[in-house]
Specification:
2 domains; Nucleotidyltransferase, domain 5; single chain; alpha/beta; binds 5'-O-[(R)-(carboxyoxy)(hydroxy)phosphoryl]adenosine; 45% helix; binds zinc ion; five-stranded mixed β-sheet
Length: 332
């Protein structure tokens, strides 16, 4: 079964074709990063307009790359929540129009569930390994999800203020780095000394929750005082380590407490090379099985939406054409 996935929740217009929920035939992402870099962050109105321009060419490219035509598509999966409403509406309108004309099912997918399925797309045998833990770290979310089965989630830890990606982006801006900040901090940090500056780690006692607002204040105070005296690479590495240490420690604690031995990471921040390295070391030391999606499945993409949609369809969860878009929608 070929599922066409559509993703437009933020600033990436993406379309993908995934066969049987596991084989990626195409995964096209039209990034708007350069456009939003002019403003130092995503401008919702600009994102919506760009999705309108990009949607049809991106769909055509996804079919061409998969060597398929619309007649070979059996169902459409589209992100309808959470995200920027204007942006979501573009993808949802395209999906509904196509499903109506092609007379095929349409499935609306929670973007967060899409990120979860980027792991299952990477490692389909995960569906035999429930319960599993997923650290979902993106621009808008930071949470530890316990997945007990397909579609069965509980959130066992989450951020109380900023998301990890938000912390990376705000920190990067204070360091004078361009948008999107996360990948730029990552690149600089790779040749920096992570022990050069001691930034705070918020442990929040016994909980599995996160907080990055103190770190944000700390980097603001530091950059104002330092005035460029410390090597930028060292600041980036130290700042990144403060985020990575907490993410690794909390996921380790979650695994210890739950007795769950399969852990995954997902979302844009999961692309961070420092986080990946630290997670691998922790997993080996703790005897845990770790799954990390390839970078193109960590950041926003439609293949993960198609995969999540496929599993929903297998469970008879197709939607009717009147579904809405939602700015906020937690998993579980
Ligand atoms: O999942 P995603 O593409 O979009 C959302 O759902 O939010 O995540 C975007 C976030 C941004 O904050 C971006 O700076 C961050 O992921 N990010 C990274 C890296 N690549 C993307 N953060 C740190 N290191 C990276 N290599
Ligand atoms: Zn995302």
């Amino acid at each position: 079964m070929n599922v066409l996935g559509i993703e437009t929740s933020c600033d990436e217009t993406s379309a993908a074709v995934v066969s049987d929920g596991r084989t990626i035939l195409s995964n096209i992402v039209a990034s708007q990063a350069d456009l939003h870099a002019l403003y130092g962050g995503v401008v919702p109105e600009v994102a919506s307009r760009k999705h309108v321009e990009n949607m049809i060419p991106t769909l055509q490219e996804a079919l061409k790359t998969a060597h398929l035509s619309y007649q070979d598509i059996h169902a459409i999966a589209v992100t309808n929540r959470p995200g920027l409403l204007g942006a979501l509406l573009i993808g949802v309108s395209a999906a509904k129009a196509l499903a109506y004309v092609l007379k095929i099912p349409v499935i609306c997918v929670n973007h967060l569930e899409g990120h979860v399925y980027s792991n299952i797309l990477t490692e389909p045998s995960l569906t035999d390994a429930f319960p599993i833990l997923i650290l979902l770290v993106s621009g808008g979310h930071t949470q530890i999800i316990r997945m007990n089965g397909q579609g069965i989630y509980s959130i066992i830890g989450k951020t109380r203020d900023d998301a990890a990606g938000e912390a990376f982006d705000k920190g990067a801006r204070l360091m004078g780095l361009p948008y999107p900040g996360g990948p730029n901090v990552d690149r600089l940090a790779s040749s920096g000394n992570a022990k050069a500056v001691r930034f705070p780690r918020a442990n929040l006692g016994d909980t599995l929750d996160f907080s990055f607002s103190g770190l944000k204040t700390s980097i603001r105070t530091f950059t104002a005082k330092d005035q460029g005296a410390t090597r930028m690479e060292d600041v980036a590495a130290s700042f990144q380590a403060a985020i990575v240490d907490v993410l690794v420690e909390k996921l380790k604690t979650a695994a210890e407490r739950s007795g769950i031995t399969t852990i995954c990471i997902a979302g844009g921040v999961a692309a961070n090379t420092g986080l990946q390295k630290a997670m691998r070391i922790m997993a080996i030391n703790q005897g845990l099985r770790l799954v990390i999606p390839p970078i193109e499945l960590c950041t926003d993409n439609a293949a993960m939406i198609a995969a999540a949609g496929y599993y929903r369809l297998q469970n008879n969860l197709a939607d009717t054409l009147d579904f809405d878009t939602l700015a906020n929608s937690p998993l579980g």
